[in-house]
Amino acid sequence: MFSFAAPLALVGLIGLPLIYWLLRVTPPRPREIVFPPTKILRELKPDEETPAKTPWWLMALRLALAAALILAMAGPVWAPSGVVASSASMLIVIDDGWPAAPTWERRVAGAASIIESAARAGGPVAVALASETAAPVPGDGGRAMEKLRSARPKPFLPDRKAIGEQAAAFARAHPGARIVWISDGIAQGDAAGFARALKEAGASSVEVYVEDHAPRALAAPTNDAAALSVDVLRTGDDASAVIDALDAKGRTIGRTTADFNGAPRVRAKIELPVELRNEVSHLRIEGENSAGAVALLDARSKVKRVALVGGESADQAQPLLSPLYYLEKALAPFAQIRVARPGVVDPVQALLAENPNIMALADVGLAPGETFDALSRFVEEGGTLVRFAGPRLANADDELLPVRLRRNGRVLGGAMSWEEPKSLAEFDAASPFFGLPAAKDVTVQRQVLAEPDPGLADKTWARLSDGTPLVTAERRGKGLIVLFHVNADANWSNLPISGLFVEMLKRISAMAGESAPSGGEQSNMVAEQSALAPMRILDGFGGLGAPGPTAQSIPPGFEGPASAEHPPGLYGAGEAFVSVQTLRPTDEISAFNFAGAGLSATALRSGSQLDLRGPLLAFALIAFIADALIAMALAGKLRLRPFGAATAALLALLCMSAATDETRAESAPKSAATQRDKDVALTTRLAYVVSGDAHIDETSRLGLEALTQALNMRTSFSPGDPVGVDPAKDELAFYPMLYWPIVASAPQPSTKTVAKVAAYMKQGGTVVFDTRDALSQRIGGAPTPETQWLRDLTKGLDIPPLEVTPRDHVITKTFYLLDGFVGRYANGETWVEALPPEPKDQAARPVRATDSVSAIVITSNDLAAAWAQDKRGQPLFPLTPGGARQRELALRGGINLVMYTLTGNYKSDQVHVRDLLERLGQ
Amino acid sequence: MFSDVTTRVYDPALRKPADGAAAADLASQMPRLVARAREIAASLAYGVHGRKRAGVGETFWQYRPFASGEAAYRIDWRRSARGDQLYVREREWEAAHDYFLWMDCSPSMAFGSSLASDDKLSRAVTLGLALADVLVRGGERAAALGLTAPVSARDVIDRLARALAENAMEAARDDLPPQAPMRPRARVVLISDFLVEPDALAARLRRFADAGASGAILMVTDPSEETLPFFGETTFVDTDGGPAFYAGDARSLRAAYARRFEAHRDAIRRAAQHVGFIFLQHRTDRPAAEAALALAMGLLGTDGLGFEERR
Questions:
Q1: How many domains does chain B have?
Q2: Which residues constitute the domain of residue B259?
Q3: What average pLDDT does the segment A704-732 reach?
């Protein structure tokens, strides 16, 4: 909408008719010529009189000029944000909880335009974030903007109570103040109380702006025996949400779509094999870049570590006789197995020091003592103890068993028994094994028997067909003791060599909770009181990063809610970390009903205000110049050459024909090889893709020029001057290497162009994509605009699998021996076409290469900026971290790249040259 | 839409620019004009040399042997005393005329247009000086009418130029030739644009004729003055201070003006021919040498060169 800074100036428009009248009576001056024979002229009677009147179009021009001036005086402003400028002091409260994160950029832009309009009107502006408790300080637009720019969304839902009080205080301190609330639209975080506080604050107006985005969130992720499941919450009317399961490196492992079916909360299941499921480190709603849309999975759902201890000394020569062999085989697919080193005095104690989740004891009798105490503590603190019967156990009863055992057990189907070997009964519904098929071919010849104590049935997880328990278990403390009444080898039963055994162990493993925070006696004692330090913390956008200064350790058993002191993320150290979720399992999110609170929310429109003064004044100036020119022309002072008009017409014609030429050239790009093509075909040279950003293009050109110089001086390759190419128009076939700096603001090339680039890569060209964003990349965070741009581009390209340049890749050895490719930054990775895996049977080669040159090299280190230098050879850009060495390495990297594109895998043979020479010498 | 013909004007007398022109008075232009006048005179010198033979004159020509029967007073005794023979001292035959040149320096002369490279005044002065040089070389004597006495010095150009430059102020006041004492049979050469009343000019010429002078009139015209190549709404400002003339559309006046200008020229021609003066006209877009030759031939006799009086 339009608004005027000084509407009174519009009164001047009344004067327009006066100007009209004045213009009518004062025609332009006639041309004046000094002419000696005027005397003779005077004797003539002029037979034609020009009407002494201003031409209408000149009058219109002058009136428009005057009107433009008057309007410009009135200071018109086009304000798309709809915020009316006024000079009252203003408080802008911005919700900075995670629900605001997905639309944060738009929120900042909208807030910026509000600040801009307020600053233009001259009123003091204060910016307050909902997570703050400090009193907002009003200042000028610049300070407010500074604060706005530095604000980042928080990974938790701030309680708006404190800021509500501050807003009320602000309204009291500044009578007539306006309060603007840029809300995330979420009721949680005391939105109702805050709205009430604003209403009662006594501000002249309370304006509420919302973004048109209903946040979604994840809560209560569980990795149970059957599936990985998570609650998906919504506040709007999204029909579904796509949930990605990602591993620690950010790769998507699994994906599922949760249909809300009208409910605000559904439970989504991600079906994955257990092995993959254990790799999942966090879940994320696709397209929702906020901390709330990330659910972290901690060590509790990780791969279990199982420590195996056998009762007899392991006989390496006859592995099939060792019960540990079968256990290892059964556990290997889903568990990390720890076995004590041979010769350890007390293997149980040694393995407990490694923090296992499960301790499996195969026929170990436990005598009271240190080992027994350590094991008891392990179980009490949450460890799972799985024991297998055996001759030793059958004769030595101890406390760490779920049931009391009868001496000696029983033998079924043996030579001294009439009984047949027993098979398994179906599993009870209460048993964790419920659902597994009771394999009929599993038979038990021998077992230990439990005393028929009361409660034995509840402790029994599996039984034989005659009802005798086969697997019993008991919770003890936080932990669990499971006893298999058979041996872990195939002597007593064929259960350990059945598939069922694997499944049963899987179920037990899934049930096993986290291990004790730390093993050992002293650290155990400390762990009881010690808090868990923050390790990796979510930011508001849902990226994991280093903990900020406000993050503090959580006490053990911390249940949330997440706050500034305890932001969501991973706490602990090493492998045994626990997660704090953004949302507690019971948390709900819902949209806030602004109308119910007596407030009306308007959509926040970003886009900065347009001050129309400049265009109006520019128009007035142009009109003034035109008027002066016309007046001069009418007065005969302006002498245009007779061919001036013709020249102008000719120029216009030329421009038109050039334009049509261009369109023709675009429509038929392959019509003929241009002169330029002929030139570049004769000399090999480097080329860069013109991005359209003049600054970047100049950097690319200077960078490649410097690289060309270096190649000239150091190598036998003398390239021609580098050229900028437009892949849409120019033929690419002449360039061995194309340097492509990514500019996120540039439009995506057309499909045709992408196809052309793809063909270029197929034909052996190498494209070096440089996203130049190594500094702004966040692992796990939202991709940078440049990366996103590159991803969009490469959708149309047939990209082979890529990998981070391995140390033995030939590209690191083509001219210089390098560790990596640094540019202006040194921390970005360089990706090349993945090499085939190293053949195992051959001796390690010092260098590996594919058959062809990698068609694509992706870096983010901004290579050209590191190369670029001015005419005097002075570098143009500072490097990070910096130093002449880095610049030299960048140049060496560039030389290697060029040499790689030119020589391919040739150097991978060259590394053998010394051996070859030696052989020749002999 | 716009006329491409531009005009320029300056004050010939004042030593400061009147219309933005760089060198805007006669004195500052004089060196250039003198140089050009010498060039033109040199190109003309081939045909109009003096008659080098004995005759009635004052300067010594030659001694010749006394012939019997001659009057004895003619013997030059000083020469004859050196030898046995009697000698008669002969003087050169002198038939020198006095030529009075008048170059009009009135403001209307200081006018030029983009159609010609020279303004009228420069052209008039160039022609006048060149003519003076040619005349002096031809044995005649030249003077600036009303400014100097006739001389036959070889540096006549410089003398006349100095006189013109020094007296431009006074000369600018009148656009008619001044009256000056002159011997009988003197010649008068008038170079001007003659944008004057033909009757006034005729009266002045008659007085020259009464004094026994004959001569020539060269009417110098700028091309724009002949054709009026202007268009559009125009105010014409007189150089002589008369009232300005406003034309709604200058182009529509062109035909009537051309007729009127031709009539004026005819009137001037009639006035000249009435008193036996030669009438020549010259347009500033033509070469200056052409007019100089015409003048010289017209004054010194055409001698069957086939040069016709330009009309």
A1: 2
A2: 7-51+95-300
A3: 90
